[in-house]
Design a protein that fits this description.
Rossmann fold; globular; 15 strands; 6-stranded mixed beta sheet; 3 domains; 42% helix; 506 residues; alpha/beta
């Protein structure tokens, strides 16, 4: 059995914390060295943020528009959403291709700024949003260039377009920082700053903990947490329960979830963040001051310090586990499947060959789960037989995240009914976070997709497909990839309000 103390000793002997701080790309072995050499710029972002803070502050002071929409996925949207929620500010996030959610974000255009955030400058969801908002502004008689702000890597297609069209502002990201490590880059600071978050304080809080995180010491919280998670993983306990104990940190777990799951979930390994109380063998971390609930560790730090701490924790845990914390080899597979479906291509086989209609719900999936079943409830009960020992259920809702936020109630319901850890994610945004773990991590997950019929649909300008077709291709493409990886998938397709009501009745 691997002990936490033995792992700590190894981390200290190999000076992992100080080598990460020195941006030593050899920490994670020769196979990861090339990628790591391009992705360690996050360690000192807190020392280089003043120019960004000044530029954002100046733009916020001169801008007359009080409604800010952020179009971005994964690392391009999660951190500023956490900051905005923690500071009680209103940032509208468009991180979906569901027509109902996209339509909602396009209200009150006369008072709206739109941030298009994409590291590559070509993310399909973000580019679709750019096309949509450009057209909506034009239809409203508003010059799009006066309302659009770009955050992207220098020289990206988005950077080039923004320069050619004369957008209101362009913020260049640090190309040496990967998306999920970008909380203290323009991806995190610009949207948060424009809605009134004290981003200077967020950066200062990160700077305050940096001297501790750099030390090869038992007192380094990142060393302890990284060792704790790594040792648990080596002993077969790969789940991490994140329990926000204060209102300020209610959204922080989603950001940590992406960081850890996408960084570690590959090569059949990885750490899976789950909700508390779902799994007795999970490592439980309280986010915020302890309130008497059980926790293996309490992390009571301000938000900026949380960001930098968990980035170090993830990098250290990845060293212990033996994975590259900076790549995402399985994310592209779902994107490729989606592109093929949009292009009208046919994939071999089908993840969902058998369907059952039960009221306003249609359940589709493999024959051993659906064939011969008399009801949707019976299909759900059959999941027990295919969940591996120590496995989990992943609920994946390709619906309007804003209008259907109540769907998160399904997670504890499924967890109780099936008696296993259960995760919940809204698609397509989870594809840019836990989607990597689901396909590349431990092969012990089974998945339930939830799709619906949007109340409206409209074209993605100049593409030949609609938003409804796009999100359908994303859900179907991901189901096919999961199936190909040996992960069983069910889909619940809901018709109207009756479909939702019947789903909750399960």
């Amino acid at each position: 059995m691997t002990t936490t103390s033995s792992v700590i000793n190894d981390i200290l002997e190999n000076r992992i914390a100080s080598r990460i701080t020195a941006q030593d790309a050899t920490v994670w072995g020769p196979e990861a060295q090339d990628e790591a050499s391009k992705r360690l710029g996050w360690v000192d972002l807190h020392t280089r943020a003043n120019d960004i803070i000044e530029k954002v502050t100046g733009l916020a002071q001169t801008c007359e528009h009080d409604r800010v929409v952020l179009a971005g996925m994964g690392g391009s949207s999660l951190a500023p959403e956490v900051m905005s929620n923690a500071y009680g500010k209103d940032l509208i996030v468009c991180d979906s291709t569901h027509p109902d959610q996209v339509s909602y974000t396009a209200q009150d255009l006369d008072r709206t700024l739109v941030i298009i955030a994409s590291k590559s400058g070509s993310t399909v969801e973000t580019d679709s949003a750019r096309r949509f908002f450009t057209q909506k502004f034009r239809d409203a008689g508003i010059d799009p260039s006066s309302r659009l702000i770009a955050i992207t890597d220098p020289g990206s297609p988005l950077d080039q377009r923004a320069a050619e069209e004369g957008w209101l502002a362009v913020f260049h990201a640090d190309s040496s920082v990967g998306g999920r490590y970008s909380a203290l880059t323009p991806f995190g600071l610009v949207p948060a700053g424009l809605v009134g978050v004290d981003i200077a304080q967020v950066v200062a809080d990160a700077a305050s903990i940096a001297p501790q995180l750099e030390q090869d010491s038992e007192d380094n919280l990142a060393v302890y947490l990284g060792a704790l998670l790594g040792a648990a993983h080596e002993n077969g306990y790969e789940k991490l329960a994140l329990d926000p104990h204060t209102e300020q940190f209610q959204g922080l777990g989603v950001w940590i979830e992406q960081l850890i799951a996408e960084s570690t979930g590959k090569d059949g390994k990885g750490i899976l963040p789950i909700a508390p109380q779902d799994c007795e063998s999970a490592t439980t971390v309280a986010l915020g001051a302890s309130d008497g609930r059980h926790a293996d560790v309490v992390v009571d730090l301000p938000l900026g310090a949380q960001f930098l701490l968990w980035e170090y924790v993830t990098a250290i845990a990845s060293y212990v586990i033996g994975v590259n914390p900076f790549d995402q080899p399985n994310v592209e597979s779902a994107k490729a499947a989606m592109r093929e479906l949009l292009a009208g291509g046919e994939q071999t086989g089908s993840a969902l060959p058998v369907s059952l209609t039960d009221g306003a719900r249609t359940v589709s999936g493999p024959a051993d789960l659906v064939e011969g079943a008399q009801s949707a409830a019976e299909v759900v009960d059959r999941l027990r037989a295919v969940i591996p020992q120590g496995g989990y259920v992943g609920l994946q809702a390709f619906v309007d995240r804003i209008g259907r936020s109540d769907l998160v109630r399904l997670r504890p319901q499924f967890a109780q009914r099936l008696g296993v850890a259960t995760t919940f994610g809204f698609g397509p945004r989870y594809l840019h976070s836990t989607g990597q773990y689901h396909k590349g991590g431990h092969a012990n997950g089974v998945f339930v997709q939830i799709t619906d019929e949007a109340s409206t649909d409209f074209d993605v300008p100049e593409t030949g497909f609609t938003f409804g077709q796009l999100i359908a291709a994303q859900s179907r493409g991901d189901a096919n990839v999961l199936n190909d990886a040996g992960r069983p998938v069910l889909r619940f397709h809901l018709s109207g309000e009756d479909g939702y009501a019947q789903l909750f009745d399960l």
